[in-house]
Specification:
Elements (H helix, E strand, L loop, with lengths): L2 H22 L4 H20 L7 H22 L2 E8 L2 E8 L12
Antiparallel strand pairs: 1-2
Helix pairs in contact: 1-2, 1-3, 2-3
Length: 109
């Protein structure tokens, strides 16, 4: 069986499972489709380079899991909340990084 035929079989068997796993990890649907596609692309590149992958299914899940983690980390970097304080007669507004557990829509007091 050629690499391309083997990859087609793996894709047909696992594409929905990888997509559903990414959704389970909390990735939005459109981004989950992109990350699933990227996972299969990485598998294709690895297989065509001649690197043996003993368990492609487990390898795909690991790649998808890491992609989901990177997705969440990148979202956390840009979360900020608005704060304001009144000093004397002036109100000063500023943005600070949101703490873990706070909603992204945290409103200023």
């Amino acid at each position: 069986m050629s690499v391309h035929e083997r990859l087609e079989d793996i894709y047909a068997a696992e594409r929905n499972h990888i997509y559903m796993y990414l959704l389970y990890c909390g990735v939005p649907p459109q981004r989950a489709q992109e990350l699933a596609q990227d996972s299969f692309l990485k598998l294709y590149m690895r297989m065509t380079e001649g690197e043996p992958i003993e368990n492609p299914r487990a390898w795909l899940y690991r790649v998808a899991h890491n992609a989901a983690r990177r997705h969440h980390i990148s979202k956390m970097k840009f979360r900020v909340r608005n704060e304001s304080v009144k000093i004397g007669g002036a109100r000063i507004s500023f943005r600070i990084p949101a703490q873990a557990g706070l909603r992204s829509g945290y409103a200023a007091r």
